[in-house]
Design a protein that fits this description.
globular; single chain; binds adenosine monophosphate; 15 helices; 614 residues; 29% helix; alpha+beta
């Protein structure tokens, strides 16, 4: 606690420039919004960094995921739309804004969301209540179309990442507010677009001058004194502690270059910490077993269980009616030292007991699964209290469906540089092969997926496809119970006739879905049965109609999907057979998908169909 107070005091002194020069504040809205009908060139927001360095600020935009449809003007920091947003409704992009003025470069994470054409912003999902981040609040920008309303961050601290300084806002404390006169920023004053900014600074400028001399100077002096006293206390404490082994907390608060990162108790994710049964919080100084764990030491602990306070949650990756998936960083997980990005699945607060037990059921299935390169792997879980967290390997490029759709742009520009999504026929056939292998593994373990589709396959940067989302899966070998669990919407276009009409799910109905997924791959993520309503699809499938052969797909490949759509389930192949058939295609030099003939305008993507999963 003492260290925390001292840390805060030090920060405030530092932030007033009394100890060392900090990088200038970057004013950036953490949540960006653009409407899907915003044309290219629309201004989304503006980033501004106060300069402390010798050069004028250069702004940049980075993404670790798929390319984002935004660009930043390197000189003015104005962010604009640079690609069509029409097909990107409801998508979010996690981006990094960089601002470098020749002193210390800064890097801040933002979340950009494409709203529907009404421009209505989605309610940002609340983060799960497990001592994790404060999800940044949505500033009210509705009355200012392009330039976000300026509010000076209350406090900040810094953290070194990848050679950048990442700015982090910390929760407001009375102490810091007193020490933070709102000094108007001379760098911002004369730049265009700052009327808003000036109007929103609430402190009278002349008053600030006298405030500074009357309050800041004595406070800085006091602060300096406190720092000296604090340093002595810390020195004495450390001396005592270092007699034994060095605490893990200390280890983790330093990066490899020895720069002290933010205190675990003062970071942007700070909240009342969720105390695990197994560990005491970092707040107590050391990571150690609690009494409870000491008592239960005789019982072997669940090897999957992971202390939730070692998870730092970042942005949401996606959500359904009851569940959410978050990108997070786990410390010392999976037998590896240090931080690792993971995906964390949890339930929303409105989840019923049934959904809770379904998630635990899903966890049991994953625990008993073993690993396969084409199936998303469980890394750990937090089940000792609610909310249950399922920790999975993070698959960086997200859904295969989206990846395929985004690859269409790459085809036009012939973009072949590393990491671009320029795809060949062979790449696509290989995707299908990998999914079939993952499904073969699952079916051998007695798992029926029941929602196999390109939206439930994830893809890594190395272009490895991984079957995901066992939300509907059941261990048929164990229970033989196939209760339908879904958020009410059904994946009608991927469902076999016996599933649609008789509620029967089996490996063979997964095979049917695989055939549809193969069609999705060939058509670069199109929605199956374009132009037909759900009712039409159900009737047509029952009456023996099938998805037509796309013109640019060769017969050999289409035959495989067609085989998967045999009306009689037992006449369909199993996954082993599909793997073997696709492998045969991969062994030839032939292009089974003639992408140069892909008719961009014949297929379309549907984001929302009422009552249906697409
Ligand atoms: P789900 O609820 O399983 O459909 O997942 C929602 C979203 O989270 C999907 O759009 C995926 O892009 C993302 N997601 C799920 N699992 C992972 C993972 N293991 N790694 C990365 N993203 C994931």
């Amino acid at each position: 606690m003492l260290a925390q107070v001292i840390g805060v005091l030090m920060l405030s002194c530092v932030s007033h420039g009394s100890l060392l020069q900090l990088p200038g504040i970057v004013h950036v809205d953490r949540n960006w919004f653009a409407s899907s009908n915003d044309p290219i060139g629309t201004v989304v927001t503006r980033v501004q960094r106060e300069t402390t360095g010798s050069e004028s600020v250069r702004y940049g935009l980075e993404t670790s995921g798929p390319p984002a449809p935004f660009k930043i003007d390197s000189k003015t920091g104005v962010v604009t739309v640079n690609d069509t947003l029409l097909d990107k409704e409801n998508q979010s992009y996690s981006l990094w804004v960089t601002a470098d003025d020749g002193s210390i470069p800064q890097r801040l994470e933002v979340l950009a969301t494409i709203t529907d054409s009404s421009g209505q912003r989605p309610k940002l999902p609340r983060p799960p209540p497990f001592g994790l981040p404060n999800y940044p609040s949505i500033p009210d920008l509705s009355h200012i179309p392009h330039i976000p309303k300026f509010t000076r961050p209350t406090q900040r601290t810094t953290k070194a990442t990848d050679g950048y300084i990442e700015e982090i806002t910390v929760p407001e404390t009375t102490l810091l507010t007193t020490l933070s006169p709102k000094v108007p920023d001379s760098n911002l004053q004369d730049k265009p677009g700052n009327e808003e900014i000036k109007n929103n600074t609430s402190v009278d400028e002349t008053q600030i001058g006298s405030d500074v001399s009357l309050t800041v100077i004595p406070l800085v002096a006091i602060g300096g004194l406190v720092v000296i006293v604090a340093a002595v206390i810390i020195f004495v404490c450390k001396k005592n502690n270092s007699k034994g082994s060095k605490s893990k907390k200390d280890d983790m608060s330093k990066d490899s270059s020895g720069i002290v990162l933010q205190d675990a108790t003062i970071n942007m994710w700070d909240r009342p910490r969720a105390y695990s049964n197994r560990y005491e919080s970092w707040d107590n100084g050391h990571l150690q077993l609690s009494e409870e764990t000491t008592i239960s030491k005789e019982e072997p602990p669940d090897e999957w269980e992971f202390p939730r306070h070692r998870l730092k949650i970042f942005n949401i990756l996606g959500e359904g009616a009851f569940g959410q998936v978050w990108r997070a960083q786990a410390i010392d997980i999976d037998g590896k030292k240090g931080e690792q990005t993971v995906a964390v699945k949890t339930l929303k607060e409105n989840a019923s007991e049934k959904e809770k037990s379904d998630l635990l059921q899903e966890l049991i299935v994953m625990k008993n699964l073993g690993t396969h390169p084409n199936v998303v792997r469980l890394i750990g879980c937090c089940t000792e209290k609610e909310p249950t967290l399922v920790i999975m390997e993070y698959v960086s490029l997200g859904k295969l469906q989206q990846f395929l759709r985004e690859s269409r742009a790459g085809r036009h520009y012939g973009n072949t540089h590393a990491g671009s999504q320029f795809l060949t026929s062979r790449d696509l056939t290989h995707f299908a092969f990998q999914v079939a292998r993952g499904m073969d593994f699952l079916s051998c373990k007695g798992i029926i997926h029941r929602d196999l589709a390109a939206r439930n396959v994830l893809i890594t940067e190395e272009r490895t496809c991984k079957v995901a989302d066992f939300g509907l899966a059941r261990d048929v070998a164990g229970t033989h119970v196939y209760e339908r669990k879904s958020d009410g919407r059904l994946p009608i276009r991927w469902m076999a006739p016996e599933s649609l009409y008789d509620d029967i799910f089996s490996v063979k109905s997964d095979i049917w879905s695989f055939g549809v997924l193969l069609w999705e791959i060939v058509t670069l993520g199109s929605t199956p049965y374009p132009g037909l309503s759900a009712g039409d699809v159900m009737r047509k499938v029952r009456d023996g109609h099938r998805l037509e052969k796309p013109e640019h797909c060769r017969r050999e490949l289409y035959n495989i999907m067609y085989y998967c759509w045999e009306a009689e389930p037992s006449s369909r192949p199993d996954f082993k057979e599909v793997v073997a058939m696709l492998e045969r295609l991969l062994c030839t030099e032939m292009d089974y998908i003639e992408l140069e003939r892909f008719p961009d305008h014949s297929y379309y993507n549907v984001q929302n169909l009422e009552g249906e999963k697409v």
